[in-house]
């Protein structure tokens, strides 16, 4: 095939997670083929661009014992926030996500061979599940840490991950890998085989990978064996759920209308009384009725996974065929099948009923703390300090009872996902004269079925509760106060399995042309231009009982919708200066993309970059650009559904029921990005190089929810003052009789986010003692991450949260690699600076308001037995560092988004090549 010839490229070694500076030259040739680097569609002679790019090679991936690319990418220092991984049991859906800069996985664009990957996972997925990409077929990964919407379109706000698959491969490459934790659980085995061959005018590569990952339980680690509570300056295991084994009974504290504090009120808004309970902990049914204490709380940890199991099958096919000397046909095909599971504590159910004679007299001897109305005016009496006056009262027939129960009688909840993802690309590329062109069609589809078993049809259950009718006859068959009734054969008819279906589909037609335009004094200018048409749709159909709200939660609505977009872009590379004093080379790059969405209309985004190579040792670079992220189908058309979120409010439960959902009026997010840095390779220090880059990303019109705690504080704590606010009216905050806070919090274009910091990479390669040595140090310094979704902005730099991960001010990876003729060894230290708990910012009584700095040590090696066989092995988290506890933690008493919850992990493998 015809190739444009250029001059010489600079050779440089590339250790793990190093910043790309150059590529190795073929010393046998005087000319080099132009290549395309992530962040630009213009092919060029080297990889020195204005944007910072990090390269991860296939050997780096093997050295980490990785069978999924997420476990490699998530260790990069430029990542943060809530990255879904196998340690996320609650809400993960078995997915794996990458989150550059901590700005959210939806703001990181994932490409495969420079083209979009289909969004995948369960439901109407809005991000790429990295499980769909087989590690065995990866040749390299290029991570662009810069906004690139002008080049790639939507989602490229925080950066781009471009996964490059093996092509033009010949022979057979087979791997067998195994791993397990130091506790003997979370066993993992993986097998893959790649075969490729060439013929007269083409090449075909086929790959297969199968991975089987086992689980670990929260009960099997000391730090997670029970939910920890803080009391009296100490920690204890009483942090479990009030929805307890054996049932939890409250005298219903609400009659008629309620105010914002959950109090029953008359038509004038005055708190009323009729024997209503106040600040009463209720009764426990476990072991016989008795006053409920913290010891009765349910320990849900033993029923929850610490590390989630999964089986995965990946099939890949890549082929190319030279139709003529100037035209090549190509195709890519990937298919993945994932079976994943999570396990959580038995379902908590809750409902109300009237205490009836038919239920027996077990409650008549029990008491509760009641408001009183001694003057008979129908309004609860208060003392001189304005506090309610209470007295002990007995339960009586006719009382309204609220009943909550942890359904340990029927076992834990099992979450299962079966996910199919297929992607096919077909196209042609070639040359017309000196101009390169390509056309392609990219189709992707994701289909999922997720099941949730051991649920209970509470609607059917409450319909069968026994009561005495007006004729004195007993109707109904179920007595909730009878413990035996909960394990009867008749009760099991209320158990069901929820089955939901969802998926997404992508179709892209694209065409482009690139080449040189005209000669300038410093060299030839170049361009790339193209057009794309993209169609996306997604859907989610909840189980029929769930859709009706009969699963004890509010109803979940379906999702269905789509959009199409037409786009056109042009990019230029202009050499301004060359071979003059203090300017060996100065290049200007520019790009602009125009787009027209069916959902919100037209707009454009642009990029300007400057590369100034002062001399052979020093290069300066900078990029300014605008970026955007269009709302996804899920964000636009997602039906309302309940989400249970951690909040704090005196006298209320710590988990609020929040209604979340999409908004068809959403507009795109808009961003301004800036990177500026230098590349330094001193001639006086052979083998050493340094890159230092500053980044600044500002997002406006951010698609987000209002902070849940802010809604509670604004609309409950200051209810009288703020009841007229639009925020409080749309949230419609209430408290039910159990102290559960309930409100709405749908997506809106109300936020702004700004993050800035520095990326520093040092590397040094040398020879000593007859061995080859490579060292690198990657460090990210987070200067600020300011989020404003309300009137009060929050800087998350240096904070760790209860649900969106951590934002360490310093993250650093040190790598030392040494190799001989037939072996190599690698040591890596991963450092995460200590953080302050976001939940403790306004408190002075937290037991653990900060986390300590954490360093993980990994060790690996390989030995070449002969030309065909190589053995590998290693251990991650060598010293079995346990994740830290902090007040306001997320799950497992820590943050599995940020820390390793599995502990020491051993891995080994054998590679066979022919």
From TrEMBL:
Subcellular location: Cell outer membrane
Superkingdom assignment: Bacteria
GO cellular component: cell outer membrane
Main subcellular localisation: membrane
Domain annotation TonB-dependent receptor-like beta-barrel: ranges: 383-878
This protein's UniProt keywords: Cell outer membrane, Membrane, Receptor, Signal, TonB box, Transmembrane, Transmembrane beta strand, Transport
Domain TonB-dependent receptor plug as annotated: residue spans: 47-160
Family statement drawn from the similarity comment of this UniProt entry: Belongs to the TonB-dependent receptor family.
Name recorded for this polypeptide: TonB-dependent receptor
